[in-house]
Amino acid sequence: LSGIGKGVTASSIGVLLKMMHRKPTAVKIDPYLNIDAGTMSPLEHGEVYVLEDGGETDLDLGNYERFMDVKLTNDSNLTTGKVYRQVIEAERRGDYLGKTVQVIPHVTGAIRDWLNRAGRAPIGMSDGAKRTPDICVVELGGTVGDIESMPFLEAIRELQLKEGRENVVVVHVSLIPEIHGEQKTKPTQHSVQKMREIGLQPDVLVARSKTPLTDTARVKLSSFCNVAPEHIIAMPDLSNIYHIPRMMVDQKLHQKIAAQLNLRMVSLDYDLVQNWIRMARRIDNVEDEVRIALVGKYTGGSDTYHSVVKALLHASIASGQKLKIVWIDSANLERRVDPEGKSPAAKAWRDLRNAHGVLVPGGFGQRALKGMVNAIYFARRHKVPFLGICLGMQLAVVEYARHVLGRPYADSTEFNSTLQANDQMVIFMPEGDVEKMGGTMRLGVRTTRLSKNSTSSRYYGQKELIHERHRHRYEVNPLHVKALESKGLKFVGVDADMGNRMEVVELPESVHPYFVATQFHPEFNSRHHRPSPPFYGLLAAAKARKKLSNPNPHRQKVDKMDGTVTSAEEIPSQKKSSKESTSKPIRSRSRSVSPSSRSMPAPPVNNLL
Prior knowledge:
Layout (H helix, E strand, L loop, with lengths): L5 H14 L4 E7 L11 H4 L3 E2 L5 E2 L2 H9 L1 E2 L5 E3 H14 L9 H18 L2 E3 L4 E2 L3 E6 L9 H14 L7 E5 L2 E2 L2 E2 L2 H13 L5 E6 L5 H11 L6 E5 L7 H7 L2 H9 L8 H16 L3 E8 L9 H13 L3 E8 L14 H10 L3 E4 L8 H13 L4 E4 L1 H13 L7 E2 L11 E5 L13 E9 L4 H5 L5 E8 L1 E3 L4 H6 L3 E6 L6 E5 L8 E4 L14 H14 L9 E3 L6 E3 L6 H8 L28
Parallel strand pairs: 1-5, 1-8, 9-12, 12-13, 14-15, 14-16, 16-17, 17-25, 18-19
Antiparallel strand pairs: 2-3, 4-6, 6-7, 10-11, 19-22, 20-21, 20-23, 23-24, 24-25, 26-27
């Protein structure tokens, strides 16, 4: 069943294998016809996770990398589109020697070959080394019985036959619904029946349920699914997903895997086990709440910004805070506020004012951009800790150009192709492809050079060169950098290759406690024991802000420039913009927190657990 937790289960099995002193890798199979996830809507499919080699993949690849602390490749995500493209290209070359090309054996054979190749390919480690894995965790997305999944299930059956049952463990994840207080096993019985019709018998059954699995349900599952009771792993809802590896250890799943694969069983890595236990408990026990307003275009579900949410969680763990994400649809920051304060717009503005920090993530398209700009303006003017990512950085530059540089029509050519040259703050990259959409952005890891003594450099441990992942077509126009810097906005990160591509922008800490934006996506490199430095900086500044007195509530009014309902100082009119552009940055009544007065230490770079 889609969304049941197969990805987290597969990731947790990867952690379990590391506890067994193995070197796991992972492959996610997505049965859709798309070549990759790059052109799919985040509202429909969740976020697009970017790998170091530029692969645009399913968000489960992010779960694998974060849990197992590895760096996977584009071959770790297999789709129907990739398989059929490979088979058709082989047929065009004449590789099949005139044979009739069929799903069996040609498509299923290509799937087997892909899994064998990806399962043996060296993977990157956190220390920069490359290691050859000895076990591959393969997750098949979708639901048993779906027509698009059939070739992959058949390929797995063939793989088990060719490699031998002693080299394959089949784990089936199934939902145990609860009706009137009784756990029902019929859906699982039927899904296992479908698997057995295909020729696959589960070796391990992971029973997902809302409450702990009852003995009665376990006996029924064992009897009707032909799985030994001790091979049924109960996986009820938990306070946080980091408890799952411990639950697998408690139910001796590692012993069952070792027995099936004929692995020499040694004692588990005690330090790694305890690290996961401590982290899970730490998340449960922390009480110091921090509210981060996530202002974006796709706030219908957390999967749309999955890695951003995880990076915020990692930073909150490191800073000793209980994370509360306040989801704000940026479209609601453009709308009129009724006097009663009951509209979505009124609630959005209240949530923004009450946040300890503001994050504006990436996105595409013109919808709801004004609300994102308004949120950035509010965070800058009222000295609320702010982090912008990708589009968030581009809009931070646009906001500054409009309200400080004195160019009220400044924008990105992505949203307005008729801009005058002086207003083109963000432009299409020269090497970009204007015809093809898929796989044509600036993708994957790139090297950024940081300025010394900048806020970003401090949180990156004074490193001069950093390596982060990218996904964008547009960039800050280098022709306007000097003018922006003359008004106080500092571009402290540039690409190490050319030196004219802006990567990090910030305001000095003497002006704003934390105003940082990055063109790259730092969330993709965040780990639970090694939080992303920009995210850690945001949470550290938010923690310092909580010690200050709460900002005074502001009068609401309708701005005459665009009809947007704002607070008295939230969005400037055209006149205010002109005045501000000729003066020094306006200081808020709130006291700025200098680096020396902060209680938070420099960002941790070692294991925090």
